[in-house]
Design a protein that fits this description.
Elements: H1 6-16, H2 22-39, H3 59-107
Amino acid sequence: MTDPTPLDKAEAAVREASTDTAAVQLAFAAMELAKMAQQQPAPQAACQHQHQHRQGRSAGEWIAIGCAVCVGGVGIAFASIAIAIGGISVAILALVLRSMWRDIQKKR
């Protein structure tokens, strides 16, 4: 009699579990996948059938791509405006602080 493999032991342990939870279902799926991988022959080195070449993109795909580019462009524009406003704010703050520093230095 042969010793059971670790895969067989795991399968037996999972089947003994009485609850049917998502973890148990996932374990069953993993075991079935491992069994199928063991049973399938190795893939051939060279593909011997002809591949079908896809035509072009459909009109719906081009419209979706165009919309995505437009939305991305608007987002980049708003980000650029926000960066510019932030830079102007920092410049104004620096000028105000420099002016305050000069006033404080003159009083001393």
